[in-house]
Structures are given as C-alpha cells and as structure tokens.
Amino acid sequence: MATVHLIEYEEASPEVRAVYDDIRATRQSDFINNFWKALAHSPEQLKRTWEAVKVVMAPGALGALTKELIYIAISAANSCDYCIHSHTASARAKGMSETQYAELLAVIAMAHQTNGLATAMKVPVDPEFLVGGEGRGSLT
Amino acid sequence: MATVHLIEYEEASPEVRAVYDDIRATRQSDFINNFWKALAHSPEQLKRTWEAVKVVMAPGALGALTKELIYIAISAANSCDYCIHSHTASARAKGMSETQYAELLAVIAMAHQTNGLATAMKVPVDPEFLVGGEGRGSLT
Amino acid sequence: MATVHLIEYEEASPEVRAVYDDIRATRQSDFINNFWKALAHSPEQLKRTWEAVKVVMAPGALGALTKELIYIAISAANSCDYCIHSHTASARAKGMSETQYAELLAVIAMAHQTNGLATAMKVPVDPEFLVGGEGRGSLT
Amino acid sequence: MATVHLIEYEEASPEVRAVYDDIRATRQSDFINNFWKALAHSPEQLKRTWEAVKVVMAPGALGALTKELIYIAISAANSCDYCIHSHTASARAKGMSETQYAELLAVIAMAHQTNGLATAMKVPVDPEFLVGGEGRGSLT
Amino acid sequence: MATVHLIEYEEASPEVRAVYDDIRATRQSDFINNFWKALAHSPEQLKRTWEAVKVVMAPGALGALTKELIYIAISAANSCDYCIHSHTASARAKGMSETQYAELLAVIAMAHQTNGLATAMKVPVDPEFLVGGEGRGSLT
Amino acid sequence: MATVHLIEYEEASPEVRAVYDDIRATRQSDFINNFWKALAHSPEQLKRTWEAVKVVMAPGALGALTKELIYIAISAANSCDYCIHSHTASARAKGMSETQYAELLAVIAMAHQTNGLATAMKVPVDPEFLVGGEGRGSLT
To answer: What are the pLDDT digits (tens) for C90-126?
Structure first.
C-alpha cells in the first residue's frame, strides 16, 4: 500500500488531468500506471517528471529498448520493486526477447559480482582507464 | 591502495599465468588490469570469474557495447569506482560516442530519480505489469 | 513475515517488559510497533537501541519533524520498507503537511538524480567545498 | 578524475554559457562547481537539471537548510562522495551550526542502524502505519 | 510474483533437469527452491551459478555456517528479500542458534551505523590500516 | 579529507579524553583511529557508539574474527571505504589468514551475484523458508 492515496482521473485537478491526457496520447492507451497517480499530489513535480521522461526515454543515439534494459538494471541495483516490474513489462512491450532478457540478467549478475569484489578489495583504478590515459578497454 | 598486493605476471604462479595469458590473447594486448592482479590471490576464483566474464560479455542477443552500458549503469548504482572507470573506458574502446554517453547519463539520472520516488512512496505494482497480466509497457 | 516470532507483551521477559513499559510511557499510548517486538529476542540490544532512539530523536538543535524527514529520506535510499512506512506515519503524526511531504519527495528525487550523475561521472570534489577551503555553498 | 573533461566557461557553447550565467546570477558569485562543468557535455540535460534544482531547493514549506540536511543524508546513504562534500559545504554556507550537524549525523547513524535491523529481520509493517490505518507515530 | 514463469522439474529441459538432479543429490532432498526455477530460463547461467555456489559455499578455511552468516549480512545490506529469507533458513538448518542470530543482528546494526557515519563524514583512512602500514586492528 | 576537523587527544575535552583513554586501555595501544577523532565533535555520540562497539564486537556466541568478517562484508556492500580498510586491517590483526580472506571474497562475490539476480527477477520467497514453514536450508 502506498504512503499516499492514488489520484484517479475522475478526481484529478485540471493540471493533473492535462498530464494524464498527455500520457494517454503519448502511449495511445487509456492506461495510467500507479506511479503517476501517486506523484499527482504535486502537479508541478508530476508535470516536470513526465516531461523529462518523454525526452530521456525517446529513441536517440541509444534505442528505446536499450534504454529500458539500462533502466531495469539500475532499478534492480537500487532494489526498486515497482520500477523493476514496470520497466521489465515495458521492455517486453518494446520487443525484448527472452534471450535478450537472459543476457541482461547475466550482465546484472556479473556486474554485481565484480562490483562487490572490486569494492571489497579497493582495487586502484589503472591509469590507462582515465581520461587522457591510453583508454584501453577492459574485460571487467 | 588495495587491501591486497597486486600480483604481477613475473611473480605469478603457473595457474595465474595461464589466466593472464588468456586475458592477453583474448584482448590482443599485453595489458592486464588491476582487478585481475588483485583477484589472483585466489587462482580458482580468478579463473572462474574470468571464464564467466568471457561468456557473459561476448556479443549475443545483446551487442557488446550495450552490455558495457548496462555494466556502467549498475556500477554507478553500486558506487563501484573501479568498475565505473574500467567499463567507461571499455565502452569508449568499443565505440561509445559522446552522444551515446550523454544519453546513458540521462537514463541513469532518470532511473535514480524515479527509483527514489517509487520507493519512498511505496507505489504498489500495477497488475498490468505482472507476468500473466496485460503486459502493458510503461513510461516509467 | 518476519524471520523471527514477534514477542508480545504478555509473553515477554521482565527486562523486555520494562522497555515496552517505557515505550508506552514515552509515547503515552499502549501501541508497541513490530520493530520492537522483533528486536526483543535480544533484551540487551532492545534496551540499548531504544535508549539511543530516545536521545537521538528528541527535539534539539533540529526539530522533531525535521529529524523524521531525514529518517524517511535515508530509509528510502536504503530501501527499508518498514522504516519508510513507520517514519512517514510518524512524520504525519508530528504534523507534516502534504505540502511538506511533496517537497520532501522532490528533494529525494533531486538528490537521487544528482547522486547518480555525480557518481557515474566521478566528478572530482571542488577544493572550495573542503574544510579549510573557501566553503562556498552549492546548488547541487 | 572525472570520466569526462570539465567544460570551463571560456570554452563553453552559448547554451552552456547561458546556464552558467544563470548559476552565477542566482548564487551572486562567479563560482561554477565541477558538477555543472561535467554535465555541460549535454546542454539539454544541464539546463533541465539546473532548472529543476532551482525549483526544488528554493525555500517553501520546508526551509532551505532543512532541504540541504535531507540532501546530505541521502548522499551519504548513496555513497556519493561529491554530493556529500558539496551539500555539507552548502549547508554550512546556509548557516548549519556544528550542533545541528552533530544531530544530523546522529540521525544518520540511527536510521542506518534500524534500517539494517528492520530489513534483516523483514519486520512486517504494522497496519497502524498504513494510510487509512490509525496513523500512529513511531519512535522508530 | 516473479518477472518470469518458474520452471518446474516436469517441464524442464534435459540440461535443466541435470542441474535440478544435482541440487537434489547435493542436498539429499527433493526440494528445489524458487531461485533456481527462475534462473532455469538460461540453462547455461543456471549451471554456471550452481557450480559456483557449490564451490564457494562448501566448508573450507571458513565454516559453512560462517559463510551463511556473511551471506545474510550482505543480503540485508543489499535489501534482497529473497536472499534474506533463504539464507536465514539455511543458517538455521546448519545449526545457527538464536543467540548467534542475535549477535549477527547486533553486528549488522553496528556496521550499518558506523558505515553511515564514516561515509557521511568522509573520514580519511588511517595509514596504519593500509597494506604495508603498521596493520593495527581497529574497534571500528 | 573529512567534512570535519579531526580532534587530537591534546585538544580534546575531558569527556572526549575519557573515551580516548578507554579506547587505548581496551586495545592496549596508543593508537586512536580517525573514525573516533571525527566523531569526537559530539562527545555524547562518541561515548554511546564506543560503548556499543565494545559490547557488540566482543567475542560471544560468534567469535571476534567472525564478527570482523561480517563487518567487512557489510562495509563492502555499503561502499564504505573507511570501514572496508579499518575492518580488513582489524581482521588481519585478529588472525585472518589469506585463505580465509579469499573465501570471504568468494562469498561476497557470490552473494552480490545472487542478490542481483533474485532482486531483478523478484523471485517469490518459498514458503519453506518462512518461520513456521518447513525450514529447509538453501544453497542460495
């Protein structure tokens, strides 16, 4: 249960309805997910966050699916249950195959493992990795 | 400074040298980065981790660069300084453009922001996002 | 479901009852929340933690509500579901308005966003921010 | 060392200079801190983030200093070195006394401690803490 | 609810069944826990992870129970609900007494508390703690 | 550099000196590490934290070295650089062998890996793991 009441379209103020309308138009669907209904207590923050999401998640130099995969990975690292579920659903809706999902999970597992090791041993950064160094790639 | 001495090739045991040799052959470079030199105190774990990295980070249903971007994002979420630097260098070596990097950073910023909000408000997961639900995508 | 049985007043040992009695007297309410019932398996830790909470959360140079807002923010960053709910309830009981809550959420969102960015880019700390530097403030 | 070159005013594009100028005007100081110089590689994200910071961190139902204290607490929970230093400097510049800082640190210590305990024991949320429950406050 | 269907023995492929059979033989029990049923979508990762778990969690220079206590502590720090429950059950099955559990929780609380403090104050590492320094112990 | 000046014995107040004296007597060494010198700005918190550390880290149902290993693991999960270094030094001073350290690192790597996977897939907790269930152990 949320710490706030979820604001439905019918009870929303005009500013909130305007954002909900834009969410529906952008997605071409009536569905408004709970995140926005919770955030609607602050119409300014609702609008600002939604406007930013539209800009950031639009396809650009990175594809829309790649952006969703990155979002899932961060949400798992931050233990955000809601975001894990919403962005996994979103990635599937954008065409993520089960093989792609399995590879994403494998990278998640590998990164957490080496993050834990490198942090526990406080491994010093190789000068080659720094900007202005030789810029060699790593396999972790 | 690391919590362990970094083991150089010259002082390494034969099992460790065998892994170092494979790292060099795989990368087609003499460079062995500090992460492996620290892990070399445990030759079994060194070999197991390196073997897994080769499998996981190889191009597959996801491209090699996409995997690096996911790795950077997780490493930032886990505050792993070493991994942030090594995988940012690696992504650049694999062709990440500055525009792609800027978009990665924008997704990192957006995901952390909505992770914080969804967790703080304990937003309940929409049934549509669950497996067996309607599977609708989200814009967060 | 907890990893331990929750110890109710009726079944508690005298040392545990003494802490429960002090919780009730301090709060002027019969309510003992689950956190203490779980911690009661270790009467020493129960007593030590409760005594510290009373000292730390009492109004001082920071007001009691300000302390609750800080507690909510940390609990969200650490993904502690229990603590998010208990301290959001507590902040409301201490008079947090819905506008204050909306502003708290906005700061949570902003801090997570810039934390993610500054960590991902490993931004070096400006000398002006260090003790003994010029001590200039920042807008992040 | 950052993963990106820090963009100084002299080498900045007109859009970036416009943001830098607004930062200087808002702060009534020439000082531009490194966070913005790193973010300037993406003028759109620089402008969007700066505009949001100005809105979010302005005094409102919560005071400017209270917002800084919350920011420090989140930055510590997220291990963001840069943000810890920049917002501690900022809080001092906004008048944080050493006694207030000591109390902030005590709340940080207490919240981390009980976050760890409540999460490790998976303490179930009391119904009284939920919206629509009795809304009783807690001392953690 | 998981983001993936849980694969039961009856519907599993031969490679997956081979791992399930080994799990059952190793544990001398028919019980396959959900973690493996979720991971079974990637037979390669299932096998690799299981093989590693057997090596890592076997008694060695550290006892099997000590390894479980460390696993619980990390899982709590990472807010992994599943892992907290599975490894607390496992530690109990390996003989963890309630007194040992209480002491584990006390260390968890203390470490989180001092982690929060040392990070918030950015305490510099004493040279004595570094490899090649005097190597003196600490009480935190 | 710390966010606070480190208070040396010579400039400390009598209450702070009393704690420093007890630290020296308990350790049978003149060495006072930086953590306490930073915390000394709040004599009450210094004393309370030190008193708790003595109780919690003393050998009991868990040995002193086991407690240090758990502390290291949590500190790595929380990315606390200071605590990683101080407790790794402390574990070595208490007799941790390099083989024990290698096994600790292997458990850290394994736990982070499965934490990431279980969280990303939101694996539901098996009823057998809950208190009052059958209590079967797990290999993760």
So the answer is: 999 999 999 999 999 999 999 999 999 999 999 999 9
Chain B residues in contact with D130 (beta carbon < 8 A) = none
pLDDT (tens digit per residue) in F77-102 = 999 999 999 999 999 999 999 999 99
pLDDT (tens digit per residue) in E62-103:
999 999 999 999 999 999 999 999 999 999 999 999 999 999
Interchain CB distance below 8 Å, F80 and E118: yes
With CA atoms as reference, the chain E residue closest to C78 would be E79
- DSSP states along chain C: --SS----GGG--HHHHHHHHHHHHHHTSS---HHHHHHTTSHHHHHHHHHHHHHHHS-SSS-HHHHHHHHHHHHHHTT-HHHHHHHHHHHHHTT--HHHHHHHHHHHHHHHHHHHHHHHHTPPPPGGGSTTS-------
Pseudo-torsion of CA B140, A76, C103, D83, nearest 10°? -120
Cβ contacts of residue A106 below 8 Å, gap of 6+? Answer: B55, B56, E42, E45
* Domains and their CATH numbers in chain B: 1-58 (1.20.1290.10), 60-122 (1.20.1290.10)
Q: Which residues of B fall within a CB distance of 8 Å from F88?
A: 3
Nearest to B106 among A26, A56, A125 (CB): A56
> What distance in Å separates residue E109's CA from the closest CA in chain F?
9
Which residues in C lie closer than 8 A to residue D47 (C-beta atoms)?
Answer: none
Cβ contact D102–F78 (<8 Å): no
Residue E21, Cβ neighbours under 10 Å: how many?
12
Positions of E strands within D1-140: none
Contact indicator for A132, E71 with CB cutoff of 8 Å:
no
Per-residue pLDDT tens over the stretch F48-87: 999 999 999 999 999 999 999 999 999 999 999 999 999 9
